[in-house]
Amino acid sequence: MAVDIVAPGGTRTQPVLSTNIGGGFGFGSGTSQAAAHLTGLVALILEVKSNLTLAKVRAVLKDTALDLGFVQEAQGNGLVDAALAAIEASKY
């Protein structure tokens, strides 16, 4: 499976602070954290420009990603950049 883009998911030594099921807060890492980050970013993009198609949302994410310097197979287009993605989405 190819990677299109990466999102912050934390690591075992630097987890992400998040909410827990049933209330409260806790730390976690991995794809569950990254998926939530990316989902929130897509919501932000659609809040900025609600008429964007899925293809255009994907293009905004890919075009504004930060190259982390890894091979394409490991990072895809790079790390999502929420601020830049929102700005670019407004231009459509």
Describe the 3D structure.
This protein is mainly α and 92 residues long. It has a domain at 36-89. The chain is 43% helix and 9% strand. It contains four helices and two strands; from the N terminus they run ββαααα. A two-stranded antiparallel ribbon has the order 1-2. Helix 1 (31-48) packs parallel to helix 4 (82-89). The longest helix is centred in the middle third of the chain and has 18 residues, at 31-48. The mean pLDDT is 94.
Name some characteristics of this structure.
single chain; 92 residues; mainly alpha; two-stranded antiparallel ribbon; 2 strands; globular
| Overall mean pLDDT | 94
Low-confidence regions: none
**Overall body shape:** globular
The number of distinct β-strands equals 2
Using the CA coordinates, give the radius of gyration. Answer: 14 Å
Q: Which structural class fits the helix and strand makeup?
A: mainly alpha
What is the gist of this entry?
This protein has 92 residues and is mainly α.
List the helices and strands and how they pair.
Elements: E1 16-19, E2 25-28, H1 31-48, H2 54-63, H3 72-75, H4 82-89
Helix pairs in contact: 1-4
